[in-house]
Write a structure and sequence with these properties.
globular, five-stranded antiparallel β-sheet, binds thymidine-5'-diphosphate, mainly beta, single chain
């Protein structure tokens, strides 16, 4: 988890994010996930070569990250922190509140060819690196 600063005054709050400061990679793409229906699980993939930072701008959700050897769950519910996910990590996103807005900053353009969408292929890929 990466903690961001909150610049607040009597008018409200502002959180700045700068490449190579709060964000440890070149940002080539930004997208956001919202209107997520109850019970939905998103993600279910890893990336061969992509870094991402996930920030929950509104509401809450749970992100599970799996390296192939260990698994951890993170609860995202705060605008002043982001979850960094490097390459070769299987992720699942669930328990979205109806008002959840999940912002994703990505290190590269969208490329379906660098996704691994089958869990067994992911495990084979992890094992091939040892
Ligand atoms: P998908 O990978 O299923 O989303 P999630 O990781 O949240 O489960 O993507 C949904 C669709 O959107 C799929 O057809 C691919 C497309 N897409 C883009 O065109 N550009 C993007 O940057 C992303 C993330 C997805």
């Amino acid at each position: 988890m990466i903690k961001f600063k909150i610049i607040g005054d009597h008018r409200g709050s502002l959180t700045p994010l700068e490449q190579y400061k709060e964000i440890p990679f070149d940002i080539k793409r930004v997208y956001y996930i919202y209107n997520t229906k109850e019970g939905v699980v998103r993600g279910n993939h890893s990336h061969k070569n992509l870094e991402q930072l996930l920030i929950c701008l509104n509401g809450s959700c749970i992100i599970s990250v799996d390296s192939g050897t260990s698994k951890k769950e993170f609860s995202l519910k705060s605008r002043d922190e982001g979850l960094y996910i490097g390459n070769n990590i299987w992720r699942e996103m669930y328990d979205f509140s109806s008002d959840c807005v999940l912002l994703v900053l990505a290190s590269d353009f969208y490329n379906e060819n660098e996704y691994i969408r089958n869990y067994k292929d992911f495990i084979d890929c992890v094992n091939s690196k040892y």
